[in-house]
Design goal:
Elements (H helix, E strand, L loop, with lengths): L3 E5 L5 H9 L3 E3 L7 H7 L5 E4 L7 H5 L6 E4 L9 H7 L2 E4 L5 H17 L1 H9 L17 E5 L3 H9 L6 E5 L10 E2 L3 H7 L2 E4 L13 H4 L7 E4 L8 H10 L4 E4 L20 E3 L8 H19 L10
Parallel strand pairs: 1-2, 1-3, 3-4, 4-5, 6-7, 6-9, 7-8, 9-10, 10-11, 11-12
Helix pairs in contact: 1-11, 5-7
Length: 314
């Protein structure tokens, strides 16, 4: 029986990659991270692809992969995979749910502190030799009202991790009836009106795309902050800039964007002093990479060696 050919597209923990390459029944291309040019050249011969957010498996890409049998998203979100095309061509698709949750929750919390204490701006000034202490008086997180939009695994972790800060915590999630971690609001608008900090923890779907437009920002407190470390396109970026410029909200932090990587000439870049941007770092920790790698290795072996599909998303 010939070996399944596997391509790791967007990086993998080094120890896990070594184990993957050593498996006697798999033929792994011997690089853990490849450029898009290398991926395009190699993918026609591959039976399995391991991807993260940098590789988009749209219909045009997949049409060039006639041997492909399996795509695994080393992470949770699969909006960069054309799942309808995969169904038509009998290409299995799975993800590794849960492995990134703690890192994503911690990054959202880190962004909250960055906004409240102006640490990004202060650091940038200090690196220019500017001591401007009086300009960066911030706010405490303790005692604020937190609104969590999407009370899935990551939203719940955020609530748990912040439970020591004496917050009044609300959540909006039409699919969760009750939580011991926070008080449910019946509508998104009610949550926005109550919250000092709104943090988003939703998947991207037709229902959540452009969920936050100018209409939602107008419902928020002028002193409030928005955190999006979930998925791009949930927030309408043009409307967010408009809201910041009008003073409808006090600030925002984005880790995800409608188009990634974010273009150098994007209107978001250097658009507003109270807009913090990070390059999709939510899952970028050594611990998360290892957990994701472990699950990916397990699922690749299960599919190609044991004929089992784990965590299917189709």
């Amino acid at each position: 029986m010939s070996k399944a050919k596997i391509l790791v597209c967007d990086g993998m923990d080094a120890d896990i990659f070594e184990k993957l390459c050593a498996h006697p029944q798999l033929q792994v291309y011997p690089k853990a991270k490849n450029s898009q040019e290398e991926i395009a050249k190699l993918c026609p011969d591959m039976h399995g692809l391991i991807i993260r957010s940098a590789t988009t498996c749209d219909a045009d890409f997949l049409a060039r992969c006639p041997q492909l049998r399996y795509i695994i998203r080393a992470g949770e979100g699969t909006d960069n995979i054309d799942k309808d095309y995969c169904r038509q061509k009998n290409i299995a698709v799975s993800n590794t749910p849960g492995a990134n949750n703690n890192s994503a929750a911690e990054h959202a919390i880190a962004l909250m502190f960055t906004l409240l204490r102006h640490t990004a701006q202060a650091n940038a000034e200090m690196q220019q030799g500017i001591w401007n202490k009086s300009a960066h008086s911030g706010l405490e997180l303790t005692g604020k009202t937190l609104g969590i939009v999407g009370m899935g695994r990551i939203g719940q972790l955020v609530a748990q991790r912040l439970s020591g800060f004496q917050l009044k915590t609300y959540y909006y999630d039409p699919f969760l009836a009750q939580s011991d971690l926070a008080q449910k609001t019946e509508t998104l608008e009610e949550l926005l009106e109550l919250s000092d900090i709104v943090t988003l923890h939703l998947p991207k779907s037709p229902e959540t795309e452009n969920l936050f437009t100018l209409q939602q920002f107008e419902k928020m407190k002028k002193s409030s902050y928005l955190i999006n470390a979930a998925r791009g396109k949930i927030v309408n970026e043009a409307d967010l800039l408009n809201a910041l410029q009008q003073g409808l909200i006090a600030g925002a932090a984005l880790d995800v964007f409608a188009q990634e990587p974010l273009a150098k000439d994007s209107p978001l870049v250097a658009a507003h002093p109270n807009l913090i941007l990070t390059p999709h770092l939510g899952a970028s920790t050594s611990e998360a990479a290892y957990r994701v790698g472990e699950k990916t290795l397990e699922q690749i072996v299960a599919f190609f060696v044991e004929d089992k599909l784990i965590n299917s998303v189709l």
